[in-house]
Inverse folding.
């Protein structure tokens, strides 16, 4: 026997049921199994929220949480691409040359590491001067080196954790222990996104990510702001099409579902996750027309695929990631993060075989990164797009074993390029061996404050009330690094 249901004045009508809400319908049909499933699902989520101490947020069904919002002031950047290198690239082997290491190679280090005496290890690579600025870059990155006049290399980065989980969390969320919203989630919370037919925050990584969704999640922010994770570069977003249902019929079904969800929301105004579900259904519907084209690289020219190294190994995978990033920011996605996780979740973690490991990683990423910078610049996108490169920390100037380096958060390198950043410059410095940041130290909180500033956001004003406290990405510290601003 068929059951026909339609909506009328926000009520459910049926030849077999009196008007009522969605819960009543699920309870009285199908032996109540639908009601049990809904209760179990929402009950589990409510328990999770209670355990986390989340403060319930009021849900307003008609509001789209990702609509563009005005910044605090006019920022130079509109979009961000974060090239994250998990494991910790070595600063003294990439962007911070240390001639003293070559002179003292093999000698006992004047500084102990974790109470241990280790011998200094010279870089296996030479450094060359590039561009008009003459900044020295390791032979690991010849292609990126040719773009040095667009880069601001920060040589005095400082973090707080010597372990990967805490280091990655701090670099991506500002907090190394507790769950906090990711930088991309804060960005979409504060600014929304320009293209309502694509997610505002997209994370692309072909391999596993340490700490998983905690690195790109929304934590206590409304769920709509979490990152959309893409791991399959050939089939980026699965189950997006529904070939059995035409667009008109699907629109009717979604409208009916939205009405039902709104009825439910009236009874659970303290639960923002239902709003995220409604928004995700609507976004998925809109994405059917635009997302397949945005992720389709087949129509890119041969010259473009060569520029990114997609036509060869070992650059094909990260080349695809970089080209997808360009296509997404070109279409208005607010924040795109690329994880270099080909071959493992911490590929830059060379406790041994430093030469082999770093050469393999640089060979896979150098050409695609340079291709991305050149492509953005030629299309006029670099003026509005902030590109960030780096890992969770650096490596020790002293050797671990005979041919490796240990974790090192006390002085390492990252670089920024694009909107609002002074290109062709270095900022800050480590000591002559590369142990500690001794000139203009830039803490992770300072980096986050600067990134928000470039997007037009005052990091002290972008807050969210949770568990009786106003939280922000930079916690209770952080200063804008004005010395790198154009």
């Amino acid at each position: 026997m068929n059951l026909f249901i339609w909506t009328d004045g926000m009520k459910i009508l049926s030849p077999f049921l009196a008007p009522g809400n969605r819960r009543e319908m699920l309870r009285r049909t199908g032996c109540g199994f639908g009601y049990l499933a809904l209760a179990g699902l929402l009950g589990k989520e409510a328990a999770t929220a209670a355990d986390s101490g989340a403060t319930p947020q009021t849900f307003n069904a008609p509001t789209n949480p990702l609509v563009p919002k005005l910044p605090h002031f006019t920022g130079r950047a509109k979009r961000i691409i974060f090239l994250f290198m998990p494991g910790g690239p070595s600063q003294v082997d990439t962007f911070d040359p240390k001639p003293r290491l070559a002179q003292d190679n093999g000698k006992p280090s004047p500084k102990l590491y974790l109470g241990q005496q280790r011998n200094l290890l010279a870089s296996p690579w030479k450094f060359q001067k590039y561009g008009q600025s003459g900044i020295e870059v390791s032979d690991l990155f010849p292609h990126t080196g040719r773009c040095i006049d667009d880069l601001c290399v920060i040589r005095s980065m400082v973090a707080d954790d010597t372990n990967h989980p805490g280091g990655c969390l701090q670099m991506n969320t500002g907090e190394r222990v507790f769950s906090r919203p990711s930088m991309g989630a804060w960005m979409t919370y504060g600014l929304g996104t320009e293209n309502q037919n694509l997610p505002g925050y997209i994370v692309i990584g072909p391999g596993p990510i340490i700490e998983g969704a905690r690195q790109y999640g929304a934590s206590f922010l409304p769920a709509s702001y979490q990152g959309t994770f893409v791991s399959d570069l050939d089939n980026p977003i699965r189950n997006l099409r529904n070939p059995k249902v035409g667009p008109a019929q699907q629109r009717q079904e979604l409208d009916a579902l939205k009405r039902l969800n709104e009825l439910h929301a009236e009874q659970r105004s303290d639960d923002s996750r239902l709003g995220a579900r409604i928004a995700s259904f609507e976004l998925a519907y809109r994405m059917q027309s635009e997302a397949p084209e945005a992720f389709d690289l087949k129509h890119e020219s041969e010259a473009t695929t060569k520029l990114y190294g997609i036509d060869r190994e070992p650059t094909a995978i990260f080349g695809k990631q970089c080209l997808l990033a360009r296509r997404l920011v070109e279409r208005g996605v607010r924040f795109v993060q690329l994880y270099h996780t080909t071959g493992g979740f911490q590929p830059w973690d060379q406790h041994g075989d430093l030469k082999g490991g770093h050469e393999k990683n640089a060979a896979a990423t150098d050409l695609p990164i340079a291709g991305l910078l050149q492509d953005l610049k030629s299309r006029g996108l670099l003026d509005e797009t902030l590109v960030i490169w780096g890992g969770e920390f650096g490596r020790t100037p002293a050797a671990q074993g005979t041919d490796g380096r240990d974790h090192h958060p006390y002085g390492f390198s990252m670089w920024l390029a694009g909107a609002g950043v002074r290109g062709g410059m270095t900022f800050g410095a480590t000591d002559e061996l590369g142990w500690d940041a001794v000139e203009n130290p830039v803490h992770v909180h300072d980096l986050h404050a600067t990134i928000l500033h470039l997007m037009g956001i005052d990091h002290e004003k972008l807050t969210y009330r949770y568990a009786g406290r106003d939280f922000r990405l930079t916690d209770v510290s952080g200063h804008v690094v004005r010395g790198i601003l154009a």
